[in-house]
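Support reply, case 0932

Customer input (verbatim):
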Amino acid sequence: MRILVVDDDPIGSRMVQFLLTEQGYDVDLVDNSRGALALVEKRRPDLLLLDVNLPPFSGFDLYERIRERGFDLPVIFVTAKGEVEDRVHGLRLGADDYICKPFQPAELTARVEAVLRRYQK
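Our regenerated output:
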């Protein structure tokens, strides 16, 4: 299973990459929304972990563009934007889950497993 982590925080991204690689996933990292869109079109991941605050356009906008291009990918927003309005917006866009930073590693892996289980059926 291939997971694409889109986050402009290199330390946080590498931590997530290490955590998920230890669980047996292949993990790609991208630090901007434009690069993430290109990578999704080139090599479709099984799951996206998206930050909201990304250059040059937000994770919300990135997710909308991915959907507009016909990709139906499971998405978990993993972000410091934890206001109720942000969480509701992300879920209403169609995201499968929304995790606020900071998070516990066990919680992230459990949510990743849950979302992937639903999509594998």
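We compared this against your earlier run and they match. Two observations from our side: The longest helix spans residues 105-120. The mean pLDDT is 96. Please reopen the case if you see a mismatch on your end.
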